[in-house]
Amino acid sequence: MDLYVAPENTLQGGIFDGKLYGIPNEVSIYACYVNKKMFTDAGLDADKDFPKTWEQMHDVAEKLTKRDASGKLTQQGFDFDWYRPNFMYLQWGAMVRQLGGSELKLDTPEAEKTMQYWVDWALKDKLGGPAYSTDQTGDFIAGKVAIRCGMGSWAKPSIEEAKIDYTVKPVPIWENAKNKNHFDIYAYFHMVSAKSAPEVQAAAWKLAWALDSHPIDYMVDAGLLQPQKVLSESKQFKDIPFMNVFLDEMSVSMYSPHVEQFSEVADALARARDRCVVQGMAIPESLKMAQDEIDKIMAKK
User: Fold this and answer.
1) What is the DSSP letter of 18?
2) pLDDT at residue 180 above 80?
3) Contact, 281 vs 275, CB < 8 A?
């Protein structure tokens, strides 16, 4: 663990009861890719005008948004990722935790404020919603959206190949945030089973390290981030633009909650969102229903 940058954060996805059970072959965190030309066309500067807070994001996104005569969006300033339930952890849950709450405790002002922001984004402000945002990298490359915050360092090669003039900025934080985390960390580990025989565990650790101890090669050749100190201190890392943004975010952010019923809870959170956005249900009522669902899911053995 001493070989990694901020291991209490970057390796937390493989830590249980204080013990590390694997080695990551890639650790992602989602920063905001910004199309500089789209900012310029809207009379904005991608560096000076990029929103640092969620309160600022609304006004900036509106200036970057274009609609046709019917009101349909032809260009988005920004949107959340609505299409997979796990983004209710990675994005919505991270915003709740910025305020000091938890996506597993929904009868709270923090959960209600964050859900209200998402609902208003789709229904009141009409800046996006479930009908949009189905392909993160593709939408950004196609010029459909000016700010895309659902991509990691792995998106960089594709965007550069498309010759997009871009910059990368940290994910916004609420003005009154209690925690300075950004969107959640998401990683892939080679894990070692504690139920295996000791000699099998020893061999598994050696194999995992042999596969996953090449952080400079992984970053230079594939844009995949293994947050080891040897990488962060290397010339290669320092020569790659914007990589510090991802590592800085990772050092202060967190993984989604460790729950066995991860996917089931994500589905319940997505249903709560959709009841509000699609069906028009009141937010407190929908969150209460979701809390009842989550309590039952978590009680399963």
Assistant:
1) T
2) yes
3) yes
- For residue 174, is it within any domain? no
DSSP-based helix, strand, coil % in the chain, nearest 5: 45, 15, 35
Q: What single string gives the DSSP state of each residue in 259-295?
A: -TTHHHHHHHHHHHHHHHHTS---HHHHHHHHHHHHH
Report the number of distinct structural domains present in the chain. 3
Burial class (CB within 10 angstroms; exposed 0-12, middle 13-18, buried 19+) of 131: exposed
Angle (nearest 5°) at CA 224 between 220 and 227: 100
| Token pair 């994005």 in the structure block, residue | 91
Domain enclosing residue 191, as ranges: 7-29+185-252
- 1 within some domain: no
For the entire predicted model, the pTM comes to 0.94
Q: For the segment 232-274, what is each residue's pLDDT rounded down to a tens digit? A: 999 999 999 999 999 999 999 999 999 999 999 999 999 999 9
Q: Which residue, among 103, 106, 86, has the nearest Cα to 94 in the 3D structure?
A: 103
Taking the C-alpha atoms of residue 87 and residue 38, their distance in angstroms, rounded to an integer, is 26
Q: Does residue 214 contact residue 39 with C-beta atoms inside 8 Å? A: no
**228 three-class SS:** strand
Interacting residues of 59 by C-beta distance below 8 A, sequence separation 6+: 51
